[in-house]
Amino acid sequence: MRMSKLVGTRTKEHPAGCVLDSHALMMRGGYLKGVCAGIYSQFLPLTRVCRKIEDIIREEMDALEGQEVLFPVALPGALWRESGRYESVGNELLRFRDRGGAEMVLGMTHEEAAVHLVRDYGVSYGRYPFFIYQIQTKFRDEARARGGLIRVREFRMKDGYSFHTSQGDLEQFFARCLRAYERIFARVGLPQVQAIASDSGMMGGEVSYEFTLLTPAGEDSVGHCPCCGRWFHLEAAEGAACPACGAENPVISRGIEVGHIFQLGDKYTKAMGMRYTDESGASRAPVMGCYGIGIGRLAASVCEASHDSHGPIWPVTVAPWQVHLCALRAGEGAVREAAERLYVLLGKGRTLYDERDVSPGVQLADADLLGAPVRVVLGPRDLAEGLCQVESRDRARRETVPIAQAAETVERMLAEMRREIEGGGLERE
Amino acid sequence: MRMSKLVGTRTKEHPAGCVLDSHALMMRGGYLKGVCAGIYSQFLPLTRVCRKIEDIIREEMDALEGQEVLFPVALPGALWRESGRYESVGNELLRFRDRGGAEMVLGMTHEEAAVHLVRDYGVSYGRYPFFIYQIQTKFRDEARARGGLIRVREFRMKDGYSFHTSQGDLEQFFARCLRAYERIFARVGLPQVQAIASDSGMMGGEVSYEFTLLTPAGEDSVGHCPCCGRWFHLEAAEGAACPACGAENPVISRGIEVGHIFQLGDKYTKAMGMRYTDESGASRAPVMGCYGIGIGRLAASVCEASHDSHGPIWPVTVAPWQVHLCALRAGEGAVREAAERLYVLLGKGRTLYDERDVSPGVQLADADLLGAPVRVVLGPRDLAEGLCQVESRDRARRETVPIAQAAETVERMLAEMRREIEGGGLERE
Question: What is the DSSP pairing of strand B311-312 with strand B351-354?
Fold first, then answer.
């Protein structure tokens, strides 16, 4: 991709109304544009990050024998009446009527749609367990949307639903899915995400885990007890004591929820009349689990966890482009020619190539905002000696190498970065 | 994928209310399930077909230097008021209010959102032309939804928007996009799709082409004049004469619209205040083109064009699985063992493996409904001689080969099929 063609504008100025660094940097870098409160359009750099995140999630869900399905965004109110949530959920559920006057809702989660899809299928114990998931747009009419992609009204989400004939089988799968989630967060560059047991709120069921990125920028308060080692959510009413051992000196952080998994029991299947015949011929309601990750929120969280004041430092696994090639003084023929050749060698598909005849300061600032993990800088002074600079976005690596060795140096740096993220501890059972 | 794990049910019976073969076969094959009028959920076989179609479309759009973006499903009414369409479009535009009482719509096309996204960017002639596209869910509140995925209310669509500083530049890009569309339809297995000049209706602008799959099952009437060779849309009022040469003996078909591209002129940019500064310093409104393809409708159209009474005959480029492996009498240990080994050799990711202990009739009927282009049948009688059957879904190819040669026979058949589709005439300029 050539920078002169990249649609979107980049600015130095901190945009008004941005509290989170990730929000400000993604606005400054031309990743997204607000359409109205809590609703954004995305430019190419962000759709590329999101797509890589989605691919990683798909791989991990498929490894759990997940089957990708697709539920509607607009759902009949009748389906939500079956579960009782049409009445029980507040104004964050957007209700409307279609042209014929029928009650409709915009899906904020899809438990009802999942049960609807499989209740004809799951009629015999032999067909269990099974696990379906989708990646789809959702809408939650938040009263106070804020924080860029962290708390929005419209968002893309991976939501999965598993069905089981016993609580024990659900628990076994739930544990496998928890490990898959840990792999997902590690692979997108967030190994510090912490699974914390939590209330499941309006979703029903009893056991749930919230995956929390520990960051001062988050809006959830979590505690860590130095006495018993337990992580917990901090409710205002509880005070600051550890709920497990009662110690009164837990370490408090404000976190961002990046995923949530629930054991739902038979709340939805029972209410919606999903039944199967067990080994003895008896009719029973299956138990369910559900498993969510917000795609855009995860992208913003990666940025929140990995940036400096100049822009995002994208982990190699989710970066919109792997390499950023700057041709300094690109107006000079010799620089331009060498850069064009290098662009091909580096791989056009994964390289963002700045061939604009603008100042080096503008080029380097834009490279910081776009956050490719490796940068190649080619300028007239180095070129005179046949050299170029290869450096990492996080400033940890920097080498001056002959231009002929640029591609292999880039390859080595990218491979090292990949190993740092995916090298150890991510094995599947 | 093992058939015993595939979520979804398959039936012999023609489902009630299905007029189109594609609708009936996709219901019978466990591809989709109706949620309410014109709104469906999709099972794995259909999400796999749609994903392959999307990948082909992405390749062709990226080859036009298209940049993938993402617009919201729910849009502020204010944006549609800017273009005038909030008032001018009928009830197929679903209007609602959010919790704060603000006017909203569900996007049925995204011209307004496209102009909103790029109007800060496209301020100087040097930034033109540019082309953005998205693949996203849309909603059109059809009064009479019918025909399975052919005429639905909620659908996924690729919609692209190009921006130019002159009508001539738009026309040049439009012609390139028209050829890209022809490649897309050929690559998904529909080379017979015909580009027909048409009215652009509520989209505005003057020139548009509709891409029509010629099939008796379609709902559009198109004519072909044997006298002057011209294709045209047949309006009821026109009678059956060719609008170009007046000949009164055109050949009439009912067709399915699978894509539509429009030259929009400055209708949206002017109304929404998008301006750029030209070479002379004057302020002007850019001209736009827009380019749509419905993903689900295209999947259904492929099925409509390529099926027999037993099920879809998926072209190799979009088939949910490339190979269907039937282990007849899978309850017998020797068959099961040989089949398990073959499953690995054929490639688990691209093979649907029927290891169920059900009758051969059920297995073969299900294989027909799932429509993989190549089938390998392993049964006790052939196995005793070390043989298996390798055959194509369209019944054109059938070979009895030693089991050790099954994988290479499959590979050869798939390669032949791929060459037949992608072999000639699809070169890009």
Answer: unpaired
